[in-house]
Amino acid sequence: MIGKIIKVLLTNLFLFSTPGFAITLKLAAISPEDSSWADYGKRFAQCVAEETSDKLRIQWFLGGTMGDEPAELKKVRLRQLHGAAFTLVGLGLITPDIRVLELPFLFQNEKEVDYLLESMQEEFSEMFRQKGFELLGFLEVGLVRFYFTRKIETLQDFLNTRMFYWTGDPIGLEALKGFGFTNIVPLQLPDVYTALSTGMVEGVYGTDYAVVGLQWFTQLKYITPWFFSYTPAAVLVSTWAYNKLDPKQQKVLKECWKKFEKPLMKIIRRDNRTAYQEMLNRGLKPLELKENVYNQLLARGKEVWKKVSGSLLSSKIVTMVKEKLSRIRKSNAHYNSSAQ
Predict the structure, then answer these.
(1) CB–CB of 163/184 below 8 Å?
(2) Which of the residues 98, 205, 216, 251 has the least number of beta carbons within 10 Å of its own beta carbon?
(3) Residue 291, phi-psi category: left (phi > 0), alpha (psi -120 to 50), beta (remainder)
Protein backbone atom coordinates (compact mmCIF):
# COMPACT_ATOMS: atom_id res chain seq x y z
CA MET A 1 0.00 0.00 0.00
CA ILE A 2 2.77 2.43 0.95
CA GLY A 3 4.57 1.51 -2.26
CA LYS A 4 1.51 2.45 -4.32
CA ILE A 5 1.19 5.80 -2.53
CA ILE A 6 4.86 6.58 -3.18
CA LYS A 7 4.44 5.62 -6.83
CA VAL A 8 1.46 8.00 -7.22
CA LEU A 9 3.34 10.82 -5.50
CA LEU A 10 6.37 10.32 -7.73
CA THR A 11 4.17 10.16 -10.81
CA ASN A 12 2.54 13.46 -9.86
CA LEU A 13 5.93 15.02 -9.24
CA PHE A 14 7.33 14.04 -12.62
CA LEU A 15 4.12 14.97 -14.41
CA PHE A 16 4.21 18.44 -12.97
CA SER A 17 7.93 19.22 -13.05
CA THR A 18 10.44 19.49 -15.85
CA PRO A 19 14.19 20.17 -15.79
CA GLY A 20 15.15 23.69 -14.76
CA PHE A 21 12.20 23.98 -12.38
CA ALA A 22 9.77 24.76 -15.21
CA ILE A 23 6.20 23.56 -14.78
CA THR A 24 4.47 21.58 -17.49
CA LEU A 25 0.70 21.31 -17.65
CA LYS A 26 -0.34 18.21 -19.55
CA LEU A 27 -3.65 18.66 -21.37
CA ALA A 28 -5.58 16.28 -23.62
CA ALA A 29 -8.12 16.68 -26.43
CA ILE A 30 -9.91 14.33 -28.80
CA SER A 31 -9.48 16.82 -31.66
CA PRO A 32 -7.14 15.63 -34.46
CA GLU A 33 -3.63 17.03 -34.92
CA ASP A 34 -4.62 18.83 -38.14
CA SER A 35 -7.76 20.52 -36.76
CA SER A 36 -8.32 24.22 -36.03
CA TRP A 37 -8.66 23.29 -32.35
CA ALA A 38 -5.21 21.72 -32.35
CA ASP A 39 -3.66 24.66 -34.20
CA TYR A 40 -4.96 27.19 -31.69
CA GLY A 41 -4.14 24.92 -28.79
CA LYS A 42 -0.51 25.03 -29.92
CA ARG A 43 -0.64 28.81 -30.29
CA PHE A 44 -2.03 28.99 -26.76
CA ALA A 45 0.89 26.86 -25.53
CA GLN A 46 3.39 29.13 -27.28
CA CYS A 47 1.79 32.23 -25.73
CA VAL A 48 2.00 30.73 -22.22
CA ALA A 49 5.65 29.79 -22.68
CA GLU A 50 6.58 33.24 -24.00
CA GLU A 51 4.69 35.18 -21.32
CA THR A 52 6.26 33.16 -18.49
CA SER A 53 9.79 33.05 -19.96
CA ASP A 54 9.32 29.31 -20.45
CA LYS A 55 8.66 28.69 -16.75
CA LEU A 56 5.18 27.39 -17.54
CA ARG A 57 4.65 25.07 -20.47
CA ILE A 58 1.65 23.37 -22.03
CA GLN A 59 1.98 19.87 -23.47
CA TRP A 60 -0.96 18.66 -25.56
CA PHE A 61 -1.99 15.04 -26.13
CA LEU A 62 -4.21 15.29 -29.21
CA GLY A 63 -6.28 12.99 -31.36
CA GLY A 64 -7.70 10.98 -28.48
CA THR A 65 -4.29 9.51 -27.58
CA MET A 66 -5.40 9.58 -23.94
CA GLY A 67 -8.70 7.87 -24.77
CA ASP A 68 -12.19 9.28 -25.18
CA GLU A 69 -13.41 12.07 -22.92
CA PRO A 70 -14.54 9.85 -20.03
CA ALA A 71 -11.07 8.26 -20.10
CA GLU A 72 -9.40 11.68 -20.22
CA LEU A 73 -11.48 12.82 -17.26
CA LYS A 74 -10.53 9.71 -15.31
CA LYS A 75 -6.84 10.42 -15.97
CA VAL A 76 -7.26 14.00 -14.72
CA ARG A 77 -8.90 12.76 -11.54
CA LEU A 78 -6.06 10.26 -11.08
CA ARG A 79 -3.64 13.18 -11.60
CA GLN A 80 -2.12 11.59 -14.68
CA LEU A 81 -3.25 14.64 -16.65
CA HIS A 82 -3.80 18.22 -15.51
CA GLY A 83 -6.76 19.09 -17.69
CA ALA A 84 -8.35 18.84 -21.11
CA ALA A 85 -10.36 20.52 -23.82
CA PHE A 86 -13.73 18.85 -23.28
CA THR A 87 -16.85 18.82 -25.42
CA LEU A 88 -20.29 18.41 -23.87
CA VAL A 89 -19.62 14.74 -23.05
CA GLY A 90 -16.76 15.49 -20.67
CA LEU A 91 -18.22 18.75 -19.42
CA GLY A 92 -21.52 17.08 -18.57
CA LEU A 93 -19.77 14.34 -16.60
CA ILE A 94 -18.14 17.04 -14.44
CA THR A 95 -21.18 19.24 -13.89
CA PRO A 96 -24.49 18.14 -15.46
CA ASP A 97 -25.93 21.67 -15.40
CA ILE A 98 -23.61 22.70 -18.24
CA ARG A 99 -25.87 20.59 -20.45
CA VAL A 100 -28.39 23.44 -20.27
CA LEU A 101 -26.55 24.80 -23.32
CA GLU A 102 -27.84 21.94 -25.50
CA LEU A 103 -31.54 22.35 -24.72
CA PRO A 104 -33.48 22.03 -28.00
CA PHE A 105 -34.06 25.32 -29.79
CA LEU A 106 -32.39 27.26 -26.98
CA PHE A 107 -30.48 29.62 -29.29
CA GLN A 108 -31.81 31.51 -32.29
CA ASN A 109 -28.36 32.51 -33.59
CA GLU A 110 -24.65 32.63 -32.77
CA LYS A 111 -24.91 36.13 -31.25
CA GLU A 112 -27.10 34.67 -28.52
CA VAL A 113 -24.51 31.95 -27.90
CA ASP A 114 -21.79 34.57 -27.49
CA TYR A 115 -23.94 36.72 -25.21
CA LEU A 116 -24.89 33.86 -22.91
CA LEU A 117 -21.36 32.44 -22.59
CA GLU A 118 -19.95 35.87 -21.81
CA SER A 119 -22.70 37.04 -19.46
CA MET A 120 -22.65 33.77 -17.49
CA GLN A 121 -18.88 33.27 -17.43
CA GLU A 122 -18.70 33.68 -13.66
CA GLU A 123 -21.62 31.35 -12.99
CA PHE A 124 -20.15 28.65 -15.24
CA SER A 125 -16.69 29.14 -13.71
CA GLU A 126 -18.08 28.63 -10.22
CA MET A 127 -19.97 25.51 -11.32
CA PHE A 128 -16.71 23.92 -12.48
CA ARG A 129 -14.73 25.24 -9.50
CA GLN A 130 -17.09 23.47 -7.11
CA LYS A 131 -16.29 20.23 -8.96
CA GLY A 132 -12.53 20.70 -8.76
CA PHE A 133 -11.82 22.42 -12.09
CA GLU A 134 -10.77 25.87 -13.24
CA LEU A 135 -12.42 27.14 -16.42
CA LEU A 136 -9.86 28.79 -18.72
CA GLY A 137 -12.48 29.61 -21.32
CA PHE A 138 -14.92 28.34 -23.89
CA LEU A 139 -14.62 27.16 -27.44
CA GLU A 140 -17.30 25.26 -29.32
CA VAL A 141 -18.25 22.40 -31.56
CA GLY A 142 -21.11 24.41 -33.02
CA LEU A 143 -24.78 24.51 -33.87
CA VAL A 144 -26.43 21.14 -34.52
CA ARG A 145 -28.88 20.05 -37.21
CA PHE A 146 -30.51 16.83 -38.49
CA TYR A 147 -29.43 14.81 -41.54
CA PHE A 148 -31.27 11.94 -43.25
CA THR A 149 -30.66 9.13 -45.72
CA ARG A 150 -34.16 9.48 -47.21
CA LYS A 151 -36.60 12.22 -48.08
CA ILE A 152 -38.68 13.55 -45.19
CA GLU A 153 -41.83 15.62 -45.81
CA THR A 154 -44.33 15.18 -42.99
CA LEU A 155 -43.97 15.14 -39.23
CA GLN A 156 -44.76 11.42 -39.29
CA ASP A 157 -41.95 10.81 -41.81
CA PHE A 158 -39.63 12.70 -39.50
CA LEU A 159 -40.55 10.80 -36.36
CA ASN A 160 -40.62 7.35 -37.99
CA THR A 161 -36.93 7.68 -38.83
CA ARG A 162 -34.51 5.26 -37.21
CA MET A 163 -32.58 8.02 -35.40
CA PHE A 164 -29.06 7.80 -34.02
CA TYR A 165 -28.56 8.78 -30.37
CA TRP A 166 -25.08 9.51 -28.98
CA THR A 167 -24.78 7.21 -25.97
CA GLY A 168 -24.18 9.15 -22.76
CA ASP A 169 -26.03 12.33 -23.76
CA PRO A 170 -29.13 12.44 -21.50
CA ILE A 171 -30.44 15.81 -22.69
CA GLY A 172 -30.09 14.68 -26.30
CA LEU A 173 -32.08 11.54 -25.50
CA GLU A 174 -34.84 13.51 -23.79
CA ALA A 175 -34.98 15.89 -26.76
CA LEU A 176 -35.39 13.03 -29.23
CA LYS A 177 -38.09 11.45 -27.07
CA GLY A 178 -39.77 14.81 -26.61
CA PHE A 179 -39.86 15.40 -30.37
CA GLY A 180 -41.61 12.04 -30.66
CA PHE A 181 -39.00 9.76 -32.23
CA THR A 182 -40.05 6.16 -31.56
CA ASN A 183 -37.05 4.29 -32.99
CA ILE A 184 -33.95 5.69 -31.27
CA VAL A 185 -30.70 3.76 -31.81
CA PRO A 186 -27.93 4.35 -29.21
CA LEU A 187 -24.44 4.37 -30.75
CA GLN A 188 -20.92 5.57 -30.07
CA LEU A 189 -19.55 7.95 -32.70
CA PRO A 190 -17.14 5.42 -34.34
CA ASP A 191 -20.12 3.12 -35.05
CA VAL A 192 -22.33 5.67 -36.79
CA TYR A 193 -20.80 5.44 -40.29
CA THR A 194 -21.35 1.68 -40.45
CA ALA A 195 -24.87 2.08 -39.04
CA LEU A 196 -25.69 4.55 -41.83
CA SER A 197 -24.18 2.39 -44.58
CA THR A 198 -26.11 -0.70 -43.44
CA GLY A 199 -29.40 1.08 -42.84
CA MET A 200 -29.37 0.51 -39.09
CA VAL A 201 -30.04 4.25 -38.77
CA GLU A 202 -31.64 6.64 -41.26
CA GLY A 203 -31.04 9.87 -39.42
CA VAL A 204 -28.25 11.53 -37.44
CA TYR A 205 -27.58 14.88 -35.82
CA GLY A 206 -24.37 16.86 -35.46
CA THR A 207 -22.49 19.94 -36.60
CA ASP A 208 -21.75 20.37 -40.30
CA TYR A 209 -17.99 20.19 -39.79
CA ALA A 210 -18.26 16.99 -37.74
CA VAL A 211 -20.58 15.30 -40.25
CA VAL A 212 -18.13 16.05 -43.07
CA GLY A 213 -15.05 15.19 -41.02
CA LEU A 214 -16.49 11.85 -39.91
CA GLN A 215 -17.54 11.11 -43.52
CA TRP A 216 -21.16 10.54 -42.49
CA PHE A 217 -22.28 12.87 -45.27
CA THR A 218 -21.26 10.30 -47.90
CA GLN A 219 -24.19 8.15 -46.70
CA LEU A 220 -26.70 11.02 -46.39
CA LYS A 221 -29.07 12.71 -48.84
CA TYR A 222 -31.04 15.36 -46.96
CA ILE A 223 -30.28 18.06 -44.42
CA THR A 224 -32.46 20.42 -42.35
CA PRO A 225 -31.89 24.10 -43.23
CA TRP A 226 -32.31 24.97 -39.53
CA PHE A 227 -30.48 24.11 -36.32
CA PHE A 228 -32.13 22.59 -33.28
CA SER A 229 -29.32 22.44 -30.70
CA TYR A 230 -25.84 23.63 -29.75
CA THR A 231 -22.73 21.82 -28.57
CA PRO A 232 -20.23 23.78 -26.44
CA ALA A 233 -16.67 22.94 -25.49
CA ALA A 234 -14.28 24.35 -22.91
CA VAL A 235 -10.72 24.12 -21.65
CA LEU A 236 -10.47 23.06 -18.01
CA VAL A 237 -7.52 22.62 -15.66
CA SER A 238 -7.86 20.67 -12.42
CA THR A 239 -7.96 22.87 -9.33
CA TRP A 240 -5.11 20.96 -7.69
CA ALA A 241 -2.83 21.75 -10.64
CA TYR A 242 -4.04 25.33 -11.05
CA ASN A 243 -3.40 26.09 -7.38
CA LYS A 244 0.22 25.01 -7.73
CA LEU A 245 0.80 27.95 -10.10
CA ASP A 246 1.74 31.38 -8.78
CA PRO A 247 -0.77 34.24 -9.35
CA LYS A 248 1.13 35.56 -12.38
CA GLN A 249 1.12 32.14 -14.06
CA GLN A 250 -2.60 31.73 -13.35
CA LYS A 251 -3.26 35.12 -14.94
CA VAL A 252 -1.15 34.30 -18.00
CA LEU A 253 -2.95 30.98 -18.45
CA LYS A 254 -6.35 32.66 -18.66
CA GLU A 255 -5.21 35.70 -20.63
CA CYS A 256 -3.48 33.59 -23.25
CA TRP A 257 -6.59 31.48 -23.76
CA LYS A 258 -8.77 34.58 -23.91
CA LYS A 259 -6.47 35.95 -26.62
CA PHE A 260 -7.32 33.05 -28.93
CA GLU A 261 -10.89 32.27 -27.84
CA LYS A 262 -12.79 34.57 -30.21
CA PRO A 263 -10.51 34.00 -33.24
CA LEU A 264 -10.91 30.24 -32.79
CA MET A 265 -14.69 30.59 -32.48
CA LYS A 266 -14.74 32.47 -35.79
CA ILE A 267 -12.70 29.80 -37.53
CA ILE A 268 -14.85 26.96 -36.18
CA ARG A 269 -17.96 28.76 -37.41
CA ARG A 270 -16.35 29.40 -40.77
CA ASP A 271 -15.42 25.71 -41.00
CA ASN A 272 -19.03 24.74 -40.24
CA ARG A 273 -20.38 27.06 -42.94
CA THR A 274 -17.83 25.75 -45.43
CA ALA A 275 -18.76 22.15 -44.56
CA TYR A 276 -22.47 22.91 -45.07
CA GLN A 277 -21.79 24.36 -48.51
CA GLU A 278 -19.58 21.41 -49.40
CA MET A 279 -22.41 19.00 -48.55
CA LEU A 280 -24.80 20.96 -50.77
CA ASN A 281 -22.21 20.90 -53.55
CA ARG A 282 -21.91 17.13 -53.13
CA GLY A 283 -25.63 16.69 -53.68
CA LEU A 284 -27.27 16.85 -50.24
CA LYS A 285 -30.59 18.65 -50.43
CA PRO A 286 -32.23 20.90 -47.82
CA LEU A 287 -35.46 19.36 -46.56
CA GLU A 288 -38.71 21.05 -47.50
CA LEU A 289 -41.05 19.96 -44.73
CA LYS A 290 -44.83 20.14 -44.93
CA GLU A 291 -47.54 20.61 -42.29
CA ASN A 292 -45.69 23.33 -40.40
CA VAL A 293 -43.32 20.64 -39.08
CA TYR A 294 -40.71 23.08 -37.80
CA ASN A 295 -43.15 24.93 -35.54
CA GLN A 296 -44.49 21.66 -34.16
CA LEU A 297 -40.97 20.50 -33.32
CA LEU A 298 -40.20 23.89 -31.81
CA ALA A 299 -43.19 23.61 -29.48
CA ARG A 300 -42.23 20.07 -28.49
CA GLY A 301 -38.65 21.17 -27.84
CA LYS A 302 -39.85 23.81 -25.38
CA GLU A 303 -41.78 21.10 -23.53
CA VAL A 304 -38.47 19.25 -23.08
CA TRP A 305 -37.18 22.26 -21.13
CA LYS A 306 -39.99 21.80 -18.61
CA LYS A 307 -39.42 18.06 -18.35
CA VAL A 308 -35.66 18.22 -17.60
CA SER A 309 -35.86 21.28 -15.32
CA GLY A 310 -35.54 20.03 -11.76
CA SER A 311 -34.48 16.54 -12.86
CA LEU A 312 -31.58 16.32 -15.33
CA LEU A 313 -30.90 20.04 -14.86
CA SER A 314 -31.41 22.26 -11.84
CA SER A 315 -34.42 24.53 -12.17
CA LYS A 316 -32.15 27.41 -11.12
CA ILE A 317 -29.85 27.12 -14.14
CA VAL A 318 -32.75 26.70 -16.58
CA THR A 319 -34.50 29.79 -15.19
CA MET A 320 -31.28 31.83 -15.27
CA VAL A 321 -30.56 30.96 -18.91
CA LYS A 322 -34.14 31.69 -19.99
CA GLU A 323 -34.06 35.09 -18.26
CA LYS A 324 -30.71 35.99 -19.83
CA LEU A 325 -31.88 35.15 -23.34
CA SER A 326 -35.23 36.88 -22.82
CA ARG A 327 -33.35 40.03 -21.83
CA ILE A 328 -31.21 40.15 -24.97
CA ARG A 329 -34.18 39.36 -27.21
CA LYS A 330 -36.21 42.21 -25.72
CA SER A 331 -33.22 44.51 -26.11
CA ASN A 332 -32.77 43.53 -29.76
CA ALA A 333 -36.48 43.90 -30.45
CA HIS A 334 -36.43 47.42 -28.97
CA TYR A 335 -33.33 48.32 -30.99
CA ASN A 336 -34.80 46.95 -34.22
CA SER A 337 -38.16 48.74 -33.75
CA SER A 338 -36.39 52.02 -32.91
CA ALA A 339 -34.24 51.76 -36.04
CA GLN A 340 -37.26 51.41 -38.33
Answers:
(1) yes
(2) 251
(3) left
For every residue of 15-37, DSSP letters joined together read: HHEEGGGEEEEEEEESS-TTSHH
- To the question of domain 2-339 being in CATH 3.40.50.1260, the answer is no
The phi, psi pair for 154, rounded to 5°, reads: -100, 170
Distance CA 145, CA 226 (A): 6
Q: Which of 99, 33, 46 shows the shortest CA–CA distance to 257?
A: 46
Rounded-to-integer distance, Cα 229 and Cα 336, Å: 25
Provide DSSP, 184-253: EEEE-GGGHHHHHHHTS-SEEEE-HHHHHHTTGGGG--EE-SS--EEEEEEEEEEHHHHTTS-HHHHHHH
Q: What is the mean pLDDT of the chain?
A: 90
Nearest to 230 by CA among 289, 145, 173: 145
Residues in the chain: 340
Is the predicted pLDDT of residue 145 greater than 60, yes or no? Answer: yes
For 71, residues 6+ apart whose C-beta sits below 8 A from its C-beta are: none
**Tens-place pLDDT, residues 40-75:** 999 999 999 999 999 999 999 998 899 889 999 999
Domain ranges (residues) in the chain: 2-339
Could you tell me if residue 170 is left (phi over 0), alpha (psi between -120 and 50 degrees) or otherwise beta? alpha
Alpha helices in the chain (DSSP H): 2-16, 36-51, 69-77, 88-94, 110-119, 121-129, 155-159, 170-179, 192-198, 208-213, 239-242, 247-281, 293-308, 315-339
- Distance (Å, whole) CA 72 – CA 78: 10
Name the pTM for this structure. 0.88
